[in-house]
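Entry:
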Amino acid sequence: MPQPFEYQITEHIATISETGGGYTVELNRVAYRDYPPKLDLRKWWNGKPLKGITLTEEEARNLYKALAGALPEEGR
């Protein structure tokens, strides 16, 4: 039998967007089981996690650099 999905939000960093019906997109620092916390960008519905991505600090830095180069100057 699969083990339950265990996580703990250790830091809420930002709410990226909110839509009707209780949906939000949030950036949090999340610890999964016994692993150190990672950055987690995920859609939530009424406090329940939905699809998203989890990044290490190095992956987040690389994504930041890629986004800075991809966005027009006024988008920064």
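The radius of gyration is 14 Å.
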